[in-house]
Write a structure and sequence with these properties.
By secondary structure, the chain is mostly helical. Helix content is 68%, strand content 0%. Helix 15 packs antiparallel against helix 19.
Length: 376
């Protein structure tokens, strides 16, 4: 029997008392002992000092090594919702191979920090990853691992979680994984924080079914969900409803720099080197004196001609153009890097007058999608 005085007892005293019970008692006696210790902790969880929580941590960890799976399951379910639960015990339960033991704490416990969740997601089963994917809050660092290592069910669960955040690398992986998976593509397309260039890339690859789902889910984005891929990308590029808050902030920053005369080629190159698509796109648009939507249209094309036309009109040097192309490759997740040598040869041969002429065709295309655009 664990007495009320256990609240202030030393770990050694409790462990001695438990050792006798666990070594000589029946399974039923072990479960009863666990229940009493757990009751004792839960009843005073909000009042215990860190030192007292540490006492229970020692006791619970000792018990975990001596109790059956069913008892560990019970312990996990009871401790998972408690914010002040013994941290080492919670960690031990989270790494249990039996998902019925690990699942409750992985999905609920606030005692598990990102470092622990990432370690767990990198080493445990898909069932463990699924439990993590349902947490109330998930950071981008954690979802990066879930998207990279999780199976289709884990990834879909993570994307459907409204409390999940995604990094740009995470969104890039999701767009790649969504090809041929209509359910996943539709779910990704509805994430409000998705970077605009990746949203456009997703939309360009989407099936008719996905575009119809996006239109039904958000009628205001109907202009971004047309019937053919080419028209879909054209309309999406000009649809303000698909511009995220981050994109708006980036555009405002570049506008301010340009108006103050502080936007130049080195500034653009630094944005591209940092992988900041929105800033780089708005910068090249400003330097080439074209609307951001037209620059965006040309920047996300699968071929590099659009980038080189903009760059030539803006008077950029090859090293800056190379940095922009490398940024595109990285953000698009291209399996094979662009042939930079061939691009350099094309760029150096491209005359400014030709670039200006082709750019005029792009302006025409923005207003009339059927207009052909010459290549360079």
């Amino acid at each position: 029997m664990i007495s009320r005085s256990a609240k202030s007892a030393s770990p050694a005293t409790l462990l001695d008392e438990l050792q006798s019970t666990l070594a000589h008692g029946t399974v039923a006696r072990r479960v009863e002992t666990l229940r009493r210790v757990t009751d004792l902790f839960i009843n005073g969880a909000g009042d215990y000092s860190n030192e007292q929580v540490g006492v229970f941590d020692d006791v619970f960890q000792f018990m975990i090594d001596h109790i059956e799976t069913s008892a560990r399951m019970l312990l996990s379910n009871r401790l998972a919702p408690i914010d002040t639960a013994p941290p080492l015990t919670i960690r031990a339960l989270a790494f249990d191979d039996v998902i019925e033991v690990a699942g409750p704490v992985l999905s609920q416990s606030t005692r598990l920090d990102d470092k622990t969740l990432i370690e767990n997601a990198r080493s445990k089963s898909q069932a463990h990853l699924m439990a993590i994917s349902t947490r109330k809050v998930l950071s981008g660092a954690v979802t990066d691992v879930l998207v990279q290592r999780g199976n289709d069910e884990v990834v879909q669960s993570t994307v459907n979680n409204p409390g999940a955040e995604f990094t740009e690398n995470g969104f890039t992986r999701l767009v790649d994984r969504a090809e041929g998976d209509d359910d996943l593509a539709a779910s990704i397309g509805l994430r409000p924080s998705m970077p605009r260039h990746l949203y456009l890339r997703l939309l360009a690859k989407a099936s008719n079914t996905v575009r119809q789902r996006l239109e039904a889910a958000n009628p205001q984005q109907a202009a971004a969900v047309p019937n053919v891929v080419k028209e879909a990308t054209r309309r999406a590029r000009s649809a303000t409803s698909t511009i995220t808050k981050n994109t708006e902030i980036a555009h405002a920053l570049i506008k301010s720099l340009h108006e103050d005369g502080r936007l130049d080629e080195p500034e653009l190159a630094s944005f591209a080197a940092a992988g900041k698509f929105d800033e780089a796109n708005a910068s090249i648009a400003a330097l080439a004196n074209v609307p951001v939507a037209i620059a965006e249209n040309m920047m996300i094309e699968s071929r590099t001609e659009g980038v080189m036309i903009l760059a030539k009109v803006a008077g950029l040097s090859w090293p800056t153009v190379r940095t922009i192309i490398k940024m595109r490759d990285k953000l698009s997740g291209a399996e094979e890097p662009t042939d930079l040598s061939a691009c350099q040869d094309t760029y150096e041969r491209l005359r400014p007058s030709t670039a200006h002429q082709v750019l005029r065709f792009h302006r025409m295309q923005q207003n009339a999608p059927g207009t052909p655009v010459p290549s360079i």
